[in-house]
Amino acid sequence: MNVFDEAAKAFNLSVQDLQFLHLGAFTKKKTYLCAFNKNDLLFVYTGKTRFVSKDAFFVDDLVKKLEKIKTKKYLFTKSPLCSKARRYLEEKGFYIYAFV
C-alpha cells in the first residue's frame, strides 16, 4: 500500500479522484507530496524527523503559492508531530492525521 492510499483511507478520500502535483516548481524539499481533487488538498509528509512549527509554516506557504485553495486541507504524516505545529495547522483549517 503506498502512502497516498494510506492517507486517503485515513481521511475517507477516493484515491481515483486524486490528481498528483509535482512540487518541484515550489520547493526543493523531497519530503513533501501533494495531491488534490475537486474539493480537497492533501499533503503527505514523508520525512523521518519530527514535524515541527517551521514545517507547518512551510506547508501553509505552499497552500498560498498553489492559489487553489480547496474547501478542505489535509496533512498526513507518519513521523512525530509537534503540538505547536498541530495547533497552527488546525487554526489554518487543516485536518491532521499523524500515525506514529
Unreliably modeled segments? none
* Biggest sheet layout: 5 strands, mixed
Shape assignment: globular
Helices, by number, come to 3
Q: How large is the radius of gyration?
A: 12 Å
Main β-sheet, spatial strand arrangement: 1-2-3-4-5
Structural class: alpha/beta
- Which H/E pattern describes the elements? HEEEHEHE
Share of helix, binned: 25-40%
Give the strand content.
25-35%
Mean pLDDT: 86
Strand element count: 5
Distance between the termini: 17 Å
Write the layout of secondary structure elements.
Layout: H1 3-11, E1 19-21, E2 32-36, E3 40-45, H2 53-66, E4 72-77, H3 83-91, E5 94-98
Parallel strand pairs: 3-4, 4-5
Antiparallel strand pairs: 1-2, 2-3
Describe it for me?
- The two termini are 17 Å apart.
- It is globular and about 30 Å long.
- The chain is α/β, with parallel strands linked by helices and 100 residues long.
- The chain has a 5-stranded mixed β-sheet with strand order 1-2-3-4-5.
- It is built from 3 helices and 5 strands, in the order αβββαβαβ.
- The model has no long low-confidence stretch (mean pLDDT 86).
- β2 and β3 form a beta hairpin.
Put the structure in a nutshell.
This protein has about 100 residues and is α/β, with parallel strands linked by helices. It has helices at about 5-10, 55-65, 85-90, and strands at about 20, 30-35, 40-45, 70-75, 95-100. The model has no long low-confidence stretch (mean pLDDT about 85).
